[in-house]
UniProtKB/TrEMBL annotation:
Annotated organism of origin: Friedmanniomyces endolithicus
An annotated GO cellular component: mitochondrion
Single GO term (MF): cysteine synthase activity
Protein name: Cysteine synthase 1
EC number from the UniProt entry: 2.5.1.47
Cellular localisation: Mitochondrion
Domain Tryptophan synthase beta chain-like PALP: 83-380
Gene behind this protein: CYS17_2
Length: 415
């Protein structure tokens, strides 16, 4: 066979086999494993046949829930801010089986900025606009440990505002770098108590007061933060559970989430839904709530969780603190254990604050007994904390290596 004949034969074989391979690959990637024969035939026709034989209804039949949700959501006409909220409510299968309860996590890591703080970020900016404090080309200033700043960075870029962030220099470098990558001007300052004039919140206040068309959004005491969760997070949880919810729990940082969701659920259920605040070491909230507001105490110790726990009662929490049914103390060891369990058992790559909430939901399930439906907040993913949470060296330094279940220590891949 001549060279020309061989080349022709190779071309002929490629022409024959390439479409066959493509169809086989398409079937392997897209065809569901368990569907009835009638639908499968329609789907195979849609996926592999000539366009004139394409069956859109057969394809839609493979994902009816997704199509239904997409029709309801339509297009996010205002871009980033329109995509905030409406996050899924996930059943945590293993913990639900263990406790005999239905434990559900609100997947706030699916917000476009990656955390629950997208909601507060949008509402505090919107509030400043509506009150005439922020005009086009203005500057937003905030004191934040991370996620609110990241949410604000996205919101401010989408609206054309400059963002300046003051934050404790104890926060992860990953968060600081990300804020700068998103266009924020970041000032890491020494971590000191709130009553110290050099606290990062007070520095943010002074910066804003010294400039025109510049607003300090004041996430801790700006009740627009709380309002975000009264108007969005609470109603979403109620609708997603069809009102079949017995309890809610999450931690308190600014307290916008715990206060706003508690206020809404208590109102709509006429007090039936029980609400518990989860608190890490070093925070005064547990003692304050447990003593029914009689003992505020002093902040002692610290926690590995970032952005939660408090040394005071914020303006966001104050109006609703009496609605809380109790408080749950969650030690760091429980939060770390849950980071690894959620990854291994649920396929969820969550940060320590999220897993503190999950640990609190488990403890609350045990406290309330089987048959209850309990909801918590999955604040964000572990992406911004991986260099700590999955570092053997860091876990040993914090005395938390033993908190990682032995069978799951292989996930700690960083030295």
């Amino acid at each position: 066979m001549t060279t020309q004949e061989r080349n022709f034969e190779e071309l002929r074989l490629r022409t024959i086999t390439a479409p066959m391979f493509a169809r086989t690959a398409l079937r392997a990637v897209t065809r569901p494993a368990t569907i009835n024969r009638t639908v499968r035939l329609g789907y195979a026709t849609a996926a592999t046949s000539h366009p004139s034989h394409f069956s859109a209804s057969a394809v839609e039949a493979m994902n009816p829930r997704g199509v239904e949700i997409s029709k309801a959501q339509r297009i996010a006409e205002d871009g980033f801010i329109s995509a905030i909220g409406n996050t899924p409510l996930l059943r945590l299968k293993k913990l639900s089986e263990e406790t005999g309860c239905t434990i559900l996590g609100k997947a706030e890591f699916q917000n476009p900025g990656g955390s629950v703080k997208d909601r507060a970020a949008y509402y505090v900016v919107k509030d400043a606009e509506e009150r005439g404090l922020l005009k086009p080309g203005g500057t937003v200033v905030e004191g934040t440990a991370g996620n609110t700043g990241i949410g604000l960075a996205h919101v401010c870029r989408s609206k054309g505002y400059k963002l300046v962030i003051f934050m404790p220099n104890t926060q992860s470098q990953g968060k600081i770098d990300l804020l700068r990558l998103l266009g924020a001007e970041v000032y890491p300052v020494p971590a000191v108590a709130y009553d110290n004039p050099e606290n990062y919140n007070h520095q943010a206040t002074r910066y804003a007061e010294a400039r025109d068309n510049c607003v300090w959004t004041n996430q801790f005491d700006n009740i627009a933060n709380r309002q975000a969760h009264i108007e969005t997070t609470g109603p979403e949880i109620w609708a997603q559970t069809n009102g079949d919810i017995d309890a809610f729990t999450c931690a308190s940082g600014t307290a916008g989430t715990i206060a706003g969701v508690t206020r809404y659920l208590k109102t709509v259920s006429e007090g039936r839904v029980q609400c518990y605040v989860a608190d890490p070491p070093g925070s005064v909230i547990f003692g304050y709530v447990s003593s029914h507001g009689k003992e505020l105490g002093e902040r002692k110790g610290s926690s590995i969780t970032e952005g939660i726990g408090q040394g005071r009662i914020t303006a966001n929490l104050q109006p609703d603190v009496e609605l809380l049914d109790g408080a749950l103390k969650i030690e760091d060891a429980k939060s770390i254990e849950m980071v690894y369990r959620c990854l291994d058992e649920e396929g969820l790559y969550l940060g320590a604050s999220s897993c503190l909430n999950v640990a609190a939901a488990r403890d609350l399930a045990v406290k309330l007994g089987p048959g209850k439906t309990i909801v918590t907040i999955l604040c964000d993913g572990a992406y911004r904390y991986a260099d700590r949470l999955f570092s053997k060296k860091w876990l040993h330094e914090k005395g938390l290596w033993e908190a990682v279940p032995e069978r799951l220590r292989s996930y700690a891949v960083l030295d």
